[in-house]
Design a protein that fits this description.
With 232 residues, this protein is α+β, with helices and mostly antiparallel strands. It has one domain. Helices cover 37% and strands 19% of the residues. The protein is built from 6 helices and 10 strands; from the N terminus they run ααββββαββαβββαβα. β8 (145-148) and β9 (156-159) form a beta hairpin. α2 crosses α5 (167-178) and α3 (80-91) runs parallel beside α6.
Length: 232
């Protein structure tokens, strides 16, 4: 017998044994759980809804999931208006985890970078904020979506009712997406104008006269020699 291609074998079973086997198979399927590391690299659940890209929307809040740049579907997960910025950051080894091209009435163009060193995060923040109309701030966490992978065929996503952050789990997911092993990250959130009632009223005019200029300056800065390659 060829052990690399063994012959099939037949086993006689009675009705009771068949029922036991069937229940065992069903039980095995229920217990099948996705591997977290593998899923971090293969997930790309966000879909295009009009001009926006996200998984779903509930109670007016968008649910979107971070996708690894190693994923073959990565480009399809990034909105067109912010793609050139994200692409430039990825080429300089930055860990992007969230982005939005900006939508009238829902917020500005923005992106988030995960950085495992606070001092370096502050340095990059200061570089970005030298551009007029660009704001940036650092957060200890960016978690707001729960991913349930207990059902391997249909993972589910929902917004956290209360953002009780598990720093270790958040770091593990980023490590899985980027093949890293850091215990902690800080999150640099960059956007090209501030949120708020006044900005919402002026957003239409800002988009026409200033947005493209801000985007170009951001891209030029990232691609310049003075903007460092992420050493982590």
């Amino acid at each position: 017998m060829n052990i690399f291609d063994p012959s099939a074998y037949v086993r006689k079973t009675n009705y009771t044994q068949q029922q036991i086997d069937k229940r065992f198979i069903i039980s095995e399927k229920k217990e099948e759980i996705l591997d977290a590391k593998e899923y971090a690299l293969t997930r790309s659940p966000n879909k295009k809804h009009g001009k926006r890209i996200y998984v779903s929307k509930k109670n007016g809040k968008v649910i979107a999931v971070s996708v690894s740049p190693i994923n073959e579907n990565f480009r399809s997960q990034i909105e067109d208006g912010v793609w050139e910025i994200i692409d430039s950051l990825i080429k300089k080894n930055y860990f992007t985890i969230s982005s939005c091209e900006g939508h009238y009435g829902e917020g500005p163009l923005q992106f988030i970078i995960a950085i495992p060193d606070l001092e370096f995060a502050e340095k990059i923040r200061d570089a970005f904020t030298k551009i007029k109309y660009v704001s940036a701030h650092i957060r200890e966490s960016s978690s707001n979506i729960e991913i349930n992978i207990s059902n391997s065929k249909k993972p589910t996503f929902k917004r956290m009712e209360k953002e009780i952050v598990n720093y270790e789990e958040e770091s593990k997911d980023i490590n899985n997406m980027y093949f890293r092993t850091y215990k902690r990250y800080w999150f640099l959130r960059v956007h090209i104008y501030k949120k708020g009632r006044i900005w919402s009223l002026l957003q239409f005019f800002f988009n026409i006269f200033f947005e493209e200029r801000c985007k170009k300056e951001l891209i030029d800065l990232i691609n310049s020699e003075k903007f460092p390659v992420n050493p982590y």
